[in-house]
Specification:
7-stranded mixed sheet, 6-stranded mixed sheet
Length: 622
């Protein structure tokens, strides 16, 4: 775990206070159960019917792993899960059934014991499992039966990848409406809230420095309410920033957002932005329902590099969802926590109140489709990777072991390409990468999310196949892999830290809880900090909670200065707008506040955290 001794002490005090309240409220007592014991009683049970097992989750396992990472069920034995943590967890099979669902997937509320009935029908073998909420938690179930049972199905990439339609004019009009979308390979279409009838919405492509207006029309069902749209990563006036409570788009109305695509009077660098709903208290719901799309900005320097273009420049939006009968989108917000107020501040109560408010799905989708494939030639491709999930992180890797060559972030090119075996992206983070399929003729290469392997105590990454590249024959390829890139100029940072933002959890299960910044949940009318227009400031981002957060700052494009007191890794040496903060981590960033005055937001981009308090307002003032 990163951070200084003093920082870890602060973390310990905060966690201890929360744990004490939770343990009293839920009467949770730490317990250890040994699964698969070889005692005489257990051997007698196995001889008469089978050996049962229990997966145990003790206090603190959210930052480590299951207390029983290896369990065995034999004969007619049963599998149970006991959760003695203060967090909710899942026990989810990595292996999939024929319909793409996990072989078993059980949510275990804190302080409860549940059975996993699906295990009764499994064939003999080993089955890896993990927690969807805290995917650093991983284990293995061994099933030992005489025969029969359900075995995992081979992964089939049955659907072609959908490339969203492209809109490139200076005036774009998008109608937000409900529509049927093909997500799963068979069965009915899934009803989604969409930009223009598709999910993702159309990809908007524009040259840097060319003013662009986008009109959004709210034609959604009455229950959707008002909307607001944020162009994530761009630099623009606060009135066009997708304010969470102001300048909303009521049902039946329209609003035009103006994006100059300039920074400090100059054209923005080549960037990979995305647009999505940003409505207070409903951001997670509205994004889950489908209000997401991509936005590409190109500059002259990028166009001179001879990078892959056209069909070989592929934007990929990765997001997870769950489904019910007839392919209906699941509604994880049916049990959303209720808002209460204490001392004029908002808190939340209920079974899904913080810290048990992570929205994750059973299916990981690419451009809105489950396990798609893309036919490619044995040439270079440019992949624009976007994690548009509400809470899940992914470590992207290729099945044949070849590297992903990262050339940029979502906000511009890096100084030099970086060869990476895996690329970790949390919610809202993006990466611009090159993949070289030369020499792969006639093969299939899988893009997948693998376990995070950097040894951090962070929350971890999903484990799942994502899509398949089917490499056909060779083709003419005039693209190049540059050794040096025209990265945008970075600000010269001041030595002094002007502002520290601390991300944590507050409250108790009995009185209400909230995710907080500097100890306070969000209040749209409270200004937490003022910064003068035209100055360059150094800010410190600090995570004193037990889980990883992904922190997004509006208003500018930022330089990463330090990560835990050290120079950032090569892939964090460009411009950024969203940072991973593992428990105990401290990141320092800098930007120059230019062009616009008014209110802007800093928040966690794990969307439930944002909805439940982890957002603050700062104003740029003259």
């Amino acid at each position: 775990m990163g951070g200084t001794v003093r920082q870890r002490s602060v973390i310990g005090l905060a966690v201890a206070a929360w744990c004490a309240a939770a343990l009293v409220a839920y009467d949770v007592t730490p317990l250890t159960i040994v699964a698969g014991t070889s005692s005489p009683a257990a051997r007698a049970e196995a001889a008469s019917g089978g050996t049962s097992a229990t997966i145990v989750i003790n206090r603190g396992d959210a930052s480590k792993s299951y207390s029983t990472p290896l369990v065995t069920v034999s004969g007619d034995g049963t599998l149970s899960v006991t959760n003695l943590d203060v967090y909710d967890h899942t026990v989810t099979s990595i292996a999939l059934a024929g319909d793409g669902t996990p072989l078993f997937d059980v949510k275990v509320l804190h302080g409860t014991t549940v059975a996993i009935p699906a295990v009764d029908g499994l064939a003999s073998g080993s089955y890896d499992f993990y927690c969807r909420f805290h995917p650093n938690m991983r284990g293995t179930l061994v099933v030992d039966r005489s025969g029969g049972g359900t075995a995992p199905e081979p992964v089939a990439f049955d659907q072609p990848l959908v490339i969203p339609s492209v809109l490139s004019g200076p005036h774009v009009r998008l109608r937000m409406r409900e529509a049927g979308v093909r997500i799963l390979p068979t069965g009915p279409l899934t009803r989604m809230w969409t930009f223009g009838g598709t999910w993702p919405g159309p990809t908007i492509t524009r040259p840097a420095g060319r003013a662009t207006s986008v009109t959004f029309v709210n034609a959604l069902p009455k229950r959707a309410g008002s909307m607001t749209v944020h162009l994530h990563g761009d630099h623009h006036d606060p009135v066009d920033d997708g304010q969470p409570t102001q300048f909303l788009i009521p049902r039946g109305a329209a609003r035009t957002y103006y994006y100059p695509l300039t920074y400090g009077g100059n054209p923005e660098p080549s960037s990979f932005f995305w647009y999505h709903d940003h409505r207070m208290d409903h951001t997670a719901r509205n994004n889950w329902r489908g209000l997401q799309g991509m936005f590409l900005v190109s500059d002259a320097a990028d166009r001179r590099l001879h990078l892959p273009t056209g069909v070989r420049d592929v934007p990929l939006m990765v997001a997870d969802r769950s489904f019910g009968n007839h392919n209906r989108l699941a509604n994880p917000f049916a049990t959303a926590p209720a808002m209460v107020h204490h001392g004029g501040q908002m808190f939340f109560v209920g079974p899904s109140a913080p810290p048990n408010d992570a929205t994750t799905g059973t299916h990981v989708l690419v451009n809105g489709r489950f396990l798609p494939h893309l036919d490619v030639t044995a040439t270079r491709y440019r992949l624009r990777l976007l994690n548009a999930s509400s809470a899940s992180a992914y470590a992207f890797a290729l099945s044949d072991g070849r590297p992903l060559i990262q050339i940029g972030t979502g906000n511009g090119l890096l100084p030099r390409p970086v060869a990476r075996e895996q690329i970790l992206l949390g919610p809202a983070q993006r990466a611009d990468v090159l993949v070289d399929f030369h020499g792969e003729e006639g093969t299939a290469v899988t893009l997948r999310s693998v376990p995070r392997s950097d040894g951090s105590a962070g929350t971890g990454t999903r484990i799942a196949p994502l899509m398949e590249f089917r490499v056909n024959g060779a083709a003419t390829d005039d693209s190049v892999l540059p050794t040096k890139l025209p990265a945008p100029e970075l600000v010269e940072p001041p030595r002094r830290v002007s502002k520290t933002w601390t991300f944590d959890l507050t409250g108790t299960p009995a009185t209400g809880s909230a995710w907080t910044i500097n100890g306070r949940p969000f209040d749209p009318h409270r200004v937490d900090y003022e910064v003068p227009l035209g100055v360059t400031q150094r800010w410190r981002l600090r995570n004193t909670s037990e889980v990883t957060h992904y922190v997004h700052i509006h208003a500018g494009q930022w330089r990463t200065l330090l990560r835990d007191g050290k120079a950032p890794p090569p892939w964090e040496r460009g411009l950024e707008d969203t940072w991973r903060l593992d428990p105990g981590e401290v990141v320092e960033v800098a930007t120059r506040f230019t062009d616009y005055t008014g209110p802007f937001m800093i928040h966690c981009h794990m969307l439930d955290h944002e909805d439940h308090g982890m957002m603050a307002r700062f104003d740029v003032v003259r």
